[in-house]
Design a protein that fits this description.
alpha/beta; Rossmann fold; 2 domains; 8-stranded mixed beta sheet; 6-stranded parallel beta sheet; 14 strands
Length: 342
C-alpha cells in the first residue's frame, strides 16, 4: 500500500508523537509498504529520511494547506492522520471534495485538564469522518469518549541487555518542562526526601519548556543537586547513568523500563491518574504517586534497600521487550485489513 502519514510535527523535532510516527512508518516500510510523511516546516521541502519520503509544507490557512496537500493525498491508497489537527488542517475538505481517500486517525495525548470542550468536539468531528482510529491510551476513550479499533501505549526499541545500575544512586527526569508533566512535584519530593529522611539524590532534568526558569530558581533556592541539560534526542546515555527515572509520558516510561530503570510517575488530577493507572501491568512495573511526601517515601525505601526494586525492574524490562514498534505497526495493519485494505 501507499500510505500517507500526516503529522503536525516530525523529526528532527523531539517528542513522543514525532518518535511514534517515525518508528511506525519505518516498520511499515520494512513490511514493503510505501510510506510518505507530510508535516509542517518554515519552508516547503522534499526529503528522504532513510526509507521514508518526507514532504514539509509551510504553515498557512487550512484551505491553502489542503490545496498543497492534495497531490500527496491523491497519490496515496490510505491517509493516516495523527491527532485531530492533522485531519482538520490537511485533509478535512477531502471529505466532500476530491481527492477522497480512505482515512484513518491516531489520537495521542490530551490538551490540558480539564480538557477544553472545543478539543473534545474536534476529536468527535474527526472520529465521525474517519473510517476508524487508534487511541494511545485507554484514558482517551473515557475522557474524550472516542470509540476506537484498538488501544495502544506506544512502543520501544528492543534493548538486548539493560546496562548495570550505577554505583551512586541518581535519577533522570524525561519530559517537557510544563505543568502537565509535574516537574515541580518531583522537585518538591527531593526536598521532602532531604528533610524527612536525611537523604539527597542527584537529578538530571532532560527537557525544555515554560517551567524551566521557575524550576531553576527553585532548585537554587532549595540547594538541590539538579542539573538541567535541555531537550535531548537520545535519552539512552542519561538512563544508563541513572538508577531511577522520573517519567510522565508513555514513550519515556517504555524507555525507562527497557533499560531496567525503576520508573516513578506522578499525577495531580483525575485525567493524569487514568493516564497512568491504565498502563499495562502498572502495579508490577511503575511506582505511582500523587504527592511529594509519598514519592519521597518511595524513593527512601529504594535508597535504603536497593533490592526492593529488583523485581519491578525485571518485570518492566520483560514487559518492554515484548512491546516493540513492530507490534504497534501490527495494530495499524490489523485496522487497515479489518476494513478491506491490504
Amino acid at each position: 500500500m501507499r500510505i500517507l502519514a500526516i503529522t503536525p510535527s516530525f523529526y528532527p523535532s523531539i517528542g513522543g508523537v514525532e518518535t511514534h510516527v517515525r518508528r511506525v512508518s519505518e516498520c511499515l516500510r520494512e513490511r514493503g509498504h510505501e510510506v510518505t510523511v507530510l508535516t509542517h516546516a518554515e519552508a516547503p521541502s522534499r526529503e528522504q529520511l532513510g526509507s521514508l519520503r518526507l514532504h514539509r509544507l509551510p504553515r498557512t490557512s487550512f484551505l491553502k494547506a489542503w490545496r498543497a496537500a492534495r497531490p500527496h493525498i491523491a497519490a496515496a491508497d490510505i491517509v493516516h492522520c495523527h491527532d485531530a489537527y492533522s485531519f482538520l488542517h490537511f485533509y478535512s475538505p477531502s471529505c466532500w471534495l476530491p481527492p477522497r481517500r480512505p482515512v484513518f486517525a491516531t489520537f495521542h495525548g490530551y490538551e490540558g485538564y480539564p480538557i477544553p470542550a472545543e478539543a473534545i468536539r474536534r476529536r468527535h468531528f474527526v472520529r465521525r469522518h474517519v473510517i476508524n482510529c487508534l487511541c494511545m491510551g485507554e484514558f482517551i476513550c473515557r475522557h474524550y469518549r472516542t470509540p476506537c479499533f484498538a488501544v495502544s501505549y506506544g512502543g520501544v526499541d528492543p534493548v538486548p541487555e539493560p546496562p548495570p545500575l550505577p554505583e551512586e544512586p541518581s535519577a533522570v527526569f524525561l519530559g517537557r518542562l510544563a505543568e502537565d508533566t509535574s516537574l515541580m512535584l518531583y522537585l518538591d519530593a527531593l526536598v521532602a526526601l532531604r528533610e524527612e529522611y536525611g537523604k539527597r539524590l542527584h537529578l538530571t532534568v532532560a527537557g525544555e519548556g515554560p517551567l524551566r526558569p521557575l524550576a531553576e530558581k527553585y532548585v537554587e533556592a532549595q540547594g538541590l543537586w539538579v542539573k538541567f541539560v535541555g531537550a535531548v534526542s537520545d535519552p539512552v546515555p542519561l538512563l544508563a547513568e541513572a538508577s531511577f527515572a522520573f517519567v510522565s509520558g508513555y514513550l519515556a516510561i517504555w524507555q525507562a523500563l527497557a533499560y531496567g530503570r525503576l520508573a516513578f510517575a506522578v499525577y495531580e488530577n483525575e485525567l493524569k491518574r487514568d493516564y497512568l493507572v491504565t498502563f499495562p501491568k502498572v502495579d508490577k512495573v511503575l511506582v505511582i504517586s500523587s504527592n511529594a511526601s509519598h514519592l519521597a517515601g518511595a524513593l527512601n525505601e529504594r535508597l535504603s534497600n536497593p533490592s526492593t526494586g529488583r523485581e519491578m525492574r525485571k518485570a518492566g524490562a520483560l514487559l518492554a521487550a515484548g512491546n516493540s514498534w513492530d507490534r504497534v505497526a501490527d495494530l495499524y495493519l490489523d485496522m487497515y485489513r479489518a476494513h478491506g485494505f491490504e
